[in-house]
Amino acid sequence: MHSPALAMAWELWGRNRTGMRVLIGGVLGLALLGFALSRSGWMRTDEPVFISSVILFAVAYLYVISMTLYSELRQGNVFSGFPARMFTLPVRTCWLVAWPMLYGIAVLALLWLAMAILIWVPAGAEVQWWALPLLAVALVWFQAVCWGVPGSPLTKIIAACVIFPALKMALEMLAWWIALLGYQHTDLGLDRNALIAWRGLTLTIFCAFFGPLAYAVAVWGVARERRGAYQGRAWLGLVLDHVSSWLPRRRGRFASPTGAQLWFEWRKKGWILPLFPASFLLFVTVVAAPFVAVPVLLMMVAVVSCLVVVLAFFVGYGLGKTSFWGGDLGLPSAQATRPLTSTALAAAKVHTAALSALVTWLFLLVVVPVWLALLDSSGELARYREVYLEPFSTFQIWKFAALGAVGLFALTWGQLVGGLCLSLTGRTWVVNAVVAFYLSLVTTSIVVITWVKDRPEDFGTILTGLTWCAAALVGVKVLGACWAIATLLRRGLWEAGHLVVGLSLWVLGVSCLLTLVYWLVPSEGLPVASVGHVPVHLIAVTVILTMPLVRLLAAPVAVAWNRVR
Amino acid sequence: MIAATSDASLPVIQLAELSRRFGAKLALDKVNLSVPRGAVFGLVGANGAGKTTLIKHVLGLLRAQAGTVRVFGSDPTADPAGVLGRIGYLAEENDLPGWMRVAELLRYMQAFYPGWDEAYAEELRQAFELEPGARVKNLSKGQRARAGLVVALAHRPELLLLDEPSSGLDPIVRRDILGAIIRTIADEGRTVLFSSHLLHEVERVADKVAMINQGRVVFSGDLDDVKHTHRCLTLRFPQPRTAPPELVSVLAWEGTGCEWTALCGGLPSAIRDDAIRAGASIVAERVPSLDEIFVARAGARSTALATQED
After folding, report:
1. B188 C-beta neighbours (distance < 10 Å), count
2. Taking the model in full, what pTM does it have?
3. What is the ipTM, given to two decimal places?
């Protein structure tokens, strides 16, 4: 190793070589798949390969970001993203920052090139070259935020939530400004086409200014960190500490060990999911609400509701770990040596998940109507209410609202439990296997959808196949549940009290969701374009499959597996 | 669930032929160890010798791959709640929840231990000068160790387990930890098992000691017996020597020329006879410190292993 630059490159490669190999394997595998499919004539378009490659690229992009951020967050060093061990190297700060930024851009460019040459061009897709510099600028800004903004990951996320929309706004303003200037010199109309016509110049100016700016921010932050300017508490931590000192504290004794453990879990991570819709609505109120109409606000509510369910899985995954932001899945000795059964430890997490989902949806149900009413100055909301709720009786509306609320709560809780049970196992390979399973499921779904679009005549056959697959998966789920119960009994982990609560919630949630499905979906099924109908029973089975049962039952087994190695 | 025994005659900890492997590394190799009720048991050994692995087996955090582990007569992995309720544990890596305040931590921990002595906890908190409103993450390393000690002691556990408790701490906190051990001994029938690098501390408070090296228990017994069966002899030979003589009982040699110092293991009379047979006269004799015995034993073991490999 003759230079610090080479040593840093070697370190990046050494830490991430397995991931990089998987990435290279994925690109080559997809290229071969595309080649094989185009030769075989099974598919009339290359769309599935293209869509899969876009998903792979998105995953790879996130991986490159985590790799070039040094991922010190995974080791619990959350105060600064830049590794403190590098501060003692005899290398100037400007180079400490420059090399990982340049390596990140280089890896990104190589990845893009490989994807374009091996997959996108053979698939006949038009390669959007202009996206590469934008992704590179986003990458260096991720690094700048992580290294330059002091404080906890939450502070960095808040900073990112401000900086990235601001960057987008700056790009749009720059594009319109250039197009406006160009419009004065040419006869082109000032519309989106004008923006595209000046895209090269816009991107050049944007990247030439904001790329170096990210570098400057990162150097400034790392230099301050290096000379110990952040040795005190982070401002957000101080503010939160100050706020929390005003909040009522628990001063009484706990009634039981399980009560104490539930308090512990809730105080530690239970509030994270409810915080998301709260901050989202606050952000929208400040940034967008004054300028948008009620339909857009309603759409935002729909988006945040869907996001809550999707995010619940990831929040649940964090709930099962020692530290929400850390990568360590092992149960810390302070938790493992608590004189509680593994079932009680798991139950505290499952109950926290339920509480978290309940608070989230209560917040949305109470706050959203008030929020909409306050923002609706033109009375548009009342007109919507008349159009959409008029055909229903009050009883029907209340029934729908109750079923919907319980169903959404159950769905969110299910996703939280699904995520937390993975991290509770304490095994990375289990997490990787499940992620690989989900990714293959998404890829298969894309292939199936494309196939149906390509060959509508096969819809019936595919539907039959899907029904059999769903039935088989339900069978696997039932078998898994039986295995979980047998294991609980065999290992002395069966504690009826905790498990009955969990199972009751599951049954209640699934019942509400199924009632909604049979109520809302027409008896002939859900129409799919002009191809046919998806039968209601298939939708019902899918709903059952989305609610984790085996993981709910096996949570105590996962804790015991993690606790005793 | 296995019913835990309270029979005073049974050892609190009983390990029989305990083996544990992590991949290619053999962390524990057929370990046999018995810790009687009321003993202060010091576990000594180099870094990576297997002390923490042994303690984790006692806590039920590791399952025995071979052999058996019994704590209070129970398998700690089969009945974790039952066994852990009777143990006070202070880990080397103090991982108390940083977001909690000291008062919250004590109230939280109280919920798990029916025998929690609130007055004793308060007395310890005051003695250790821990502010009830201070967050654990804002405490210094020494204060965190003290908070961990309060939590480990306040329920007056039958077994106090301390894994390298004074590692990296200042002498004042080390004094507090030793004080805690002494306090626990004062409570009749309570047992202490602690691992440490600081052998002079082990010497001060332990009445039994086991030395673990590369996964094996090299010796185990009463501290007095260990000291009684080791001698540090200074031998004078009539002619200068380039190498020390081969004596069975010698664990380590040091010296040059005519005068050599040997650390020997065995009965003192047998050691003296061996030395005289080698033609040497004994010019000085003393009881070695535990530190010297440890270094000699660890060195002897690695030399023996190296010879085997050759």
Report:
1. 7
2. 0.76
3. 0.77
